[in-house]
Amino acid sequence: MNAAQQPASRARGRPRSQASEDAILDATLELLSDCGYRDATVEAIALRAGASKSTIYRRWPTKENLVIAAFARSPLLHAPARGDVCAQLSATIEQFARYMQETPLGAVLPVLVAERGRNPALDQALQPLVRQRREPLGEILTAAIARGELPAGIDIELAQDLLMGPVLQRIMVMGKRVDRPFIDAVVSNVCGGLRAAAGS
Amino acid sequence: MNAAQQPASRARGRPRSQASEDAILDATLELLSDCGYRDATVEAIALRAGASKSTIYRRWPTKENLVIAAFARSPLLHAPARGDVCAQLSATIEQFARYMQETPLGAVLPVLVAERGRNPALDQALQPLVRQRREPLGEILTAAIARGELPAGIDIELAQDLLMGPVLQRIMVMGKRVDRPFIDAVVSNVCGGLRAAAGS
Amino acid sequence: MNAAQQPASRARGRPRSQASEDAILDATLELLSDCGYRDATVEAIALRAGASKSTIYRRWPTKENLVIAAFARSPLLHAPARGDVCAQLSATIEQFARYMQETPLGAVLPVLVAERGRNPALDQALQPLVRQRREPLGEILTAAIARGELPAGIDIELAQDLLMGPVLQRIMVMGKRVDRPFIDAVVSNVCGGLRAAAGS
Amino acid sequence: MNAAQQPASRARGRPRSQASEDAILDATLELLSDCGYRDATVEAIALRAGASKSTIYRRWPTKENLVIAAFARSPLLHAPARGDVCAQLSATIEQFARYMQETPLGAVLPVLVAERGRNPALDQALQPLVRQRREPLGEILTAAIARGELPAGIDIELAQDLLMGPVLQRIMVMGKRVDRPFIDAVVSNVCGGLRAAAGS
DNA sequence: CAGTAATCGAGACGGTACGTCCCGTCTTTAT
DNA sequence: ATAAAGACGGGACGTACCGTCTCGATTACTG
Questions:
Q1: Is D30 near chain C, with CB under 8 Å?
Q2: Residue D75, pLDDT score
Q3: Which of A13, B13, B107, B180 is the most buried (most CB within 10 A)?
Q4: Of residues D110 and C65, which shows the higher confidence score?
């Protein structure tokens, strides 16, 4: 079961260079940030990483996959341990909003999303990437329910959609900036709605 | 009305063919739907429309603009005249969700969004397209406030984000289908939140 | 029959640029001469010709075919009108030898020859190229027979092999230079042999 | 004789495997024959030989040198001891023609020749290979002169060119087959020419 | 018999040319 | 002036191969 994973006798041949991989992914993020998706040429990425195109294509079959891998290394959201549920949610969402607006993720996520419909493998790769960013919200909500701050019986999945949706849509689809007051308003409304639904 | 458009002396030379324009926009939508954005080549569109590339580029400066023009012909959402605010909102959003999931818009919108960051002209063109789809929600909300179904002082813009965001995000980012129960849950929660906020 | 060839109504669309074609073929010969076959990159040829790779590949499917086309423009051999048969043959062969040794043809012909075995289309293209260079020898021999300088009944094809073979082999296979005395010796031997065969 | 090769103390470390070397050279000839020079990848040769690329490149610096080494193992031509000079020459040349037409040598020689111009080391390696195949002709001619079958004062080198040239050219450049009657005609003509030159 | 040094298979690596594809423009003739 | 046809310059993509390198595993000689 886990034996398959352990390198029984170390793979033969020259091992892949972790340094190269890191340099390539870093270069990808940098160029994405500097030039955008279209102008971040695979050749330019190779050049900046001090690697060769072969090394890139040996690891990732297409440019899209490379970009996904680069973003997969982006930091997870960190839910604060203290504060009431609204403050925790706001702080967490703000991290996400900042990441979307101040790194190339904001520019690239739509492209990945667009490509996913045509590329099932990419869909598989993108799924956990997105899901992990949402997970902290679920944990906060679960804890709040346990503390009695929110009523039991809440659909966590739905709540995540209600919280993330407006932010993502405003950034991606509307092309507007998201600031703390907006996030607070969203969180406040969603929490209010959740409590009202339980009370009815 | 149309007199304003028509100059003193008609433009000289052969007039542009409206038939060509329609054929091109139809072919664009069809190919987008069949092959996705990337594989919907301008050349292929011209072929299917029985037009030539020059005819296309004479009207729209880039492929992106062509695609936007094609979508600009999509029907507006139609807010039902009767029912309480929740029912009206649900029905309207359902139209939108169906349109996103059963036409190529769902696949193409992210690409347009992605390209917009790099292309201000496209941004200008995309803005009203998106805004018009949201507008009916604003009208429903305004009327509900006037009827006293919702408290006054509601931020209409925010409410639109709260309603559309979860749906768009679920379809585009999560890659899941949106059905009527989900829409009802969103609408119910948002309305509950709006009322709770007023009550507090 | 010949109607198929005549441009009844001129091919539609923008015609191919003869200037581009000439520039490309010239650049090919120049680069071949400067850098050899391997280093005469298609990209470099396009650059020097002020053309694009697309334009090159639209006309010739591979680099080999491009190179053949370039050589197909090389000048034909010119048989001198006066002199006895040996002098005429020597002069003609010397033209060929000079062309082989002072232009890139000498470096490229072997590659074409090598590729031919694997590429029937290339074979078809190379055949007349080679044959035309030999033809003047046949004419000289035929005229000499008519004048009585050589006996009738000579196998012209064989005689061409006997004359060209030693020169080509010395240049291509042995990698040595061919000078006038060598050519004279070959011609003298072949003519002597042809006369001796008739006399026996 | 072989003592000169063997140093005072044998080289240290694991000795090179003769079996590998043989397998590599055999695989080279086979693949050359099956696929031609270009498609006979070093990697494919290694695979078929059950060797690794390092083992190949440790012995031969480039692919060209490997190919030459493979051909260097081809059998020398064997001059028959009996018969008149024409019969001996014909028999010897026929061996060569058969070897050129029924082994990959015919396909590869032009490539080696082409590459030689750009690679002096390869030139050094190719020279003896070619020369050895011609040598038997020289011996036959020398013996014939000694026997009085051919006049003294013949330029042996030239005679070799006259004999081999037409055959090589017909096979390589013209892409035609060479049969015994053709060889006989060449030999007969050359011998006739040599005798005629002496008589004049 | 343990140590050392060169070889072996495997396969990753940098580099570079190839040939394909598409975009947006330009140049024809025909309407 | 616009239309269809299609060539053009430009430039990214992904593939393939070369010759080098880095691994762990052999295989002989050597102290």
A1: no
A2: 81
A3: B107
A4: C65
